[in-house]
């Protein structure tokens, strides 16, 4: 990289321009919804043909399989997008440092040039030589102090210029490394996006081939499966052990999430007109004053885990063994969540899907009765 003013400035501008291009808004999305059957996230997207007299239970399981695969790919996309956003921000900061560093270096060079011009105007004699030619002892003594000060100032100026040049080289190297990571995550996002779109397209094709009566029967099968799972969960006696008290922030998060009931699921959406599952939970907690990870998998990894028996309204229930879905517990054995494409945000039984565990965004806050 060029070290002149034009070279460094061009580098900074290039950094900013590249960030603008690579960080162009993309679709951020979380986890398409689940159903009671665990399914197989990595399964083929080939959909069975919709023929008269087909087994709708098999269709239901296939749809579950497709949407679960989409959910897994969704978190891959979200993880790549979060990293890309972070890297874009870091590159922007490096660009700012490069610009400021170049301005500082230019200033130091101006000071060094001024010192050189001053020496030229005085005949080019160094201060030490002028002292040796002085006839006045007092001037000699006073001049000695000025020489020492001047030497120190010159040495400091040169040292600062060197450090600034080294900083600029380091910033440029960091920016280059971040560009490489950003490009890798851009490709990862594109690959994951294709996976999601492929699975959802296959599911939508399968559903579109159903007759209206079959669609209604399929919806009943979905509800029956969820009710069966919820009944079994409640039958375990779990509800009587739950602490229903919520924190002030938990109540705000629940109020926000439940106010979205009826709005459509849309993968990548974080409101206000539509949400995906982790878009709903993350925005609900932002509204309550606490920022949490964007994806269900990162919510599971980073937030504090609590026992199901200790869960309280506002806590997040993570579903399926791959943490591909999340809902918010609202009390009385219920959860509010954004199920999947083609469905709206709704309140369902907390045990209507296989529970992986529970996490708490506001650990340490006191519950209020």
List the helices and strands and how they pair.
Layout: H1 5-22, H2 56-121, H3 127-132, H4 137-208, H5 212-235, H6 248-258, H7 277-287, H8 296-302, E1 304-306, E2 316-319, E3 325-331, E4 334-337, E5 346-349, E6 355-360
Antiparallel strand pairs: 1-6, 2-3, 2-6, 3-4, 4-5
Helix pairs in contact: 1-2, 1-4, 2-4, 2-5, 6-7
What does this structure look like?
- This protein is of the alpha+beta class and 369 residues long.
- The protein is built from 8 helices and 6 strands.
- The chain has helices at 5-22, 56-121, 127-132, 137-208, 212-235, 248-258, 277-287, 296-302, and strands at residues 304-306, 316-319, 325-331, 334-337, 346-349, 355-360.
- The chain has a 6-stranded antiparallel β-sheet.
- Helix 6 packs across helix 7 (277-287).
- It is elongated.
- Residues 1-53 have low confidence and may be disordered.
Summarize the structure.
This protein has 369 residues and is α+β, with helices and mostly antiparallel strands. The protein has helices at residues 5-22, 56-121, 127-132, 137-208, 212-235, 248-258, 277-287, 296-302; strands at 304-306, 316-319, 325-331, 334-337, 346-349, 355-360. It has a 6-stranded antiparallel β-sheet with strand order 1-6-2-3-4-5.
């Amino acid at each position: 990289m060029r070290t002149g003013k034009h070279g460094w400035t061009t580098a900074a501008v290039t950094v900013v321009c590249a960030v603008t291009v690579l960080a162009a808004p993309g679709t951020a999305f979380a986890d398409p919804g689940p159903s009671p059957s665990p399914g197989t996230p990595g399964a083929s997207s080939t959909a069975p043909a919709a023929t008269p007299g087909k087994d709708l239970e098999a269709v239901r399981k296939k749809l579950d399989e497709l949407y679960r695969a989409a959910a897994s790919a969704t978190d891959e996309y979200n993880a790549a997008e979060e990293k890309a956003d972070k890297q874009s921000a870091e590159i922007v900061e490096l660009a700012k440092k490069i610009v400021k560093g170049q301005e500082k270096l230019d200033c130091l060079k101006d000071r060094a040039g001024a010192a050189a011009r001053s020496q030229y105007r005085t005949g080019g004699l160094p201060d030490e030589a002028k002292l040796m030619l002085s006839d006045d002892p007092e001037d000699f003594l006073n001049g000695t102090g000025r020489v020492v000060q001047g030497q120190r100032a010159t040495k400091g100026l040169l040292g600062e210029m060197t450090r600034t040049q080294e900083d600029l080289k380091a910033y440029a190297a960091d920016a280059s490394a971040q560009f490489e990571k950003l490009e890798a995550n851009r490709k990862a996002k594109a690959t994951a996006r294709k996976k999601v779109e492929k699975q959802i397209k296959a599911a939508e094709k399968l559903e579109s081939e159903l007759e209206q009566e079959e669609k209604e029967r399929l919806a009943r099968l979905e509800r029956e499966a969820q009710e069966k799972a919820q009944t079994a969960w409640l039958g375990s006696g779990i509800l009587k052990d739950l602490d229903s008290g919520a924190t002030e922030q938990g109540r705000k998060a629940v109020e926000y999430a439940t106010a979205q009931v009826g709005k459509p699921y849309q993968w990548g959406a974080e409101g206000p007109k539509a949400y995906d599952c982790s878009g709903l939970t993350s925005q609900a907690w932002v509204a309550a004053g606490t920022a949490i990870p964007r994806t269900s998998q990162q919510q599971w990894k980073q937030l504090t885990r609590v026992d199901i028996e200790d869960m309280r309204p506002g806590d997040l229930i993570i579903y399926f063994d791959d943490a591909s879905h999340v809902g918010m517990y609202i009390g009385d054995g219920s959860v509010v969540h954004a199920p999947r494409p083609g469905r709206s945000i709704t309140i369902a039984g907390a045990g209507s899907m296989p529970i992986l565990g529970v996490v708490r965004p506001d650990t340490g806050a006191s519950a209020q009765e």
